[in-house]
Amino acid sequence: MQQLRRALYIFMLVFAGVSLSSMGVWGQFRKIDSLRMVLYTAKDKKQVDVLNELASQYWRVAPDSAKEFAQRAYKQATDLNYDKGRAQALNNEGAVYFVKGIYVRSLELHFQALAIAEALNDDPEAALSLRRIGNVYLDQNNNEKGREFYSKALKYLSKINDYDALASTLNNIGVSYVPEKNFTAALDYLNQGLRAAIQSRLPQTLAIVYTSLGETYLAQGSPDKALSYLKKALEESLQDGELDTRAYIQIHIGKCYLHLHKYEEAAQYAKEGLKLSRSLESRNTMSIGYSVLADIYIAKHDSSTAFIYEKAYADLRDTIMNQESIRRIQQLQSTYEIEAKNREILLLQSEQELSSLWRNSLIAGLIGMIVVVILVVNRIRIEHKAELTLQIKNDELAAKINFRLRHKPTKTRRTAKTRSR
C-alpha cells in the first residue's frame, strides 16, 4: 500500500510538471510564432535582428532550428556588412554547440564574436561572448579559467544595466568554487546572483540561481535544504519553457532523493531529466543523467543496470572531451591571448603616438610663445630706444633754444648801442 501511494504521488508530480511545462513551452512558441510573422515583412538589418532573436529563442527548445536561423543571420549580416548582426549570430550558433557538448566549435564561434564585439565597442555582446566562453571552461572543470572570463565579463556588465546577465555571471562564479569546496565564496557569489535575479524578474534566471544554491547545499551535505531550492528552481523553470535547464534540475532532484535514500523518486526524476536532455541532444546534461542513474542503481544493488548507465556516461564523456578537443581548446585560448596582447600593443602605440603628438605640439607652442615674447621685447626695446633718442634730441634742441634765448638780449643791446653812435 505504501509503495502504491508513493507511485501515485510520483505520477501526480510528473503529471503536474508536464502540464505546467506545456504551458511554459506554449508561451515560448507563441513568441516564436510572433517573430516568424515579423520575419516575413522584415528587410535588411531588421531581418538579421529577427533571425538572431529566433535563434536565441530556439536554442533552448530546438537547438538544430536555432543553428539554422543563426547561420542565415550570419550570411545576411555578412552580405550587408552588418558586424553587430554577425557577432550576435556567432554567439547564437556557439550556444547551440555548447548545448550539444561540442566545445571546440563553441569556443571558436564565441571567440570570433568577441573579437567583433570588442572592435565595435559593443559592451553587451562582448560580455555575452565572455560569459559563454567561461561556461565552456566551467563545464570542462577548468574553474580558474572560467572565473577569468567571467571577471572580464563583469567589467563590461558594470557599464550596463542588465540584471539577467549580472545574475548569470555571479551565479557561475559561485558555482566555480563548489568543486574546490570553498563554500563561503560560492554562497557569497550565489546570494549576490540571487539578488540580481530577483531584480531581473525572469523565471529562467531565478531557476538557474536556485539550482546552483541547491547543488551547493547538496555538496555541503545538506540534501533537505538542497531539495527545497531545487523544487523552487523547477517551479520557475516550468514558467519559462527552457528545457535544458529543466532537464538539469530534474536530474539533480533525483540526486537529492538518492542522498535521502528515496530511490524510487530519485530514479523517476533522473529518468525524466535524461529523457528530456536526449530529446535536446544536450550531451553534457545527458552525461550527468547517466552518472546519477548509475549511482542510484548501485545504491539499489542493481549492478547490471548500473553498469549500463555507467558505460553510457563514460562513452559520452570520452566523446565530449577527447585529446584532440583539449588540444584545439588550448590552441584557441593561445590565439585569443595573442590577439588580445596585439590589441593592447596597438592601443599602447596609439596612445604613445598621441602622447608624442601632444608633447611635440606643446614644445612647438612653447617655442612659438618664446619667439613671440622675444619679438615683443625687441619691439619694446626698439621703441624705447627710439623714444630715448627722440628725447635726447628734444633735450638738445630745448637746450639750444634756451641758450639762444639767454643770449639774445645782449646781442640786441649791442646793436642798439651801435645805432646810437
Kindly describe this structure.
- The chain has 421 residues and is an all-alpha fold.
- Helices cover 89% and strands 0% of the residues.
- The chain has 16 helices and no strands.
- Helix 4 runs parallel beside helix 6 (123-139), helix 13 packs antiparallel against helix 14 and helix 14 runs antiparallel to helix 15 (303-320).
- Mean pLDDT is 80; it is low at 1-26 and 408-421.
Principal-axes geometry comes out as elongated
Average the pLDDT over all residues and give the rounded result: 80
Number of helices: 16
Query: What structural class results from the helix and strand content?
Result: mainly alpha
How much beta, percentage-wise?
under 5%
Query: Can you give the helix content as a percent range?
Result: over 70%
Distance between the termini: 177 Å
Q: Name the poorly predicted regions.
A: 1-26, 408-421
Give the C-alpha Rg: 40 Å
Number of strands: 0
Task: Kindly summarize this structure in a few lines.
This protein has 421 residues and is an all-alpha fold. It is built from 16 helices and no strands.
Task: Set down the secondary structure blueprint.
Blueprint: H1 2-41, H2 44-58, H3 63-79, H4 83-99, H5 103-120, H6 123-139, H7 143-157, H8 163-177, H9 183-200, H10 203-219, H11 223-240, H12 243-259, H13 263-280, H14 283-299, H15 303-320, H16 323-420
Helix pairs in contact: 1-2, 1-11, 1-13, 2-3, 2-4, 3-4, 4-5, 4-6, 5-6, 5-16, 6-7, 6-8, 7-8, 8-9, 8-10, 9-10, 10-11, 10-12, 11-12, 12-13, 12-14, 13-14, 14-15
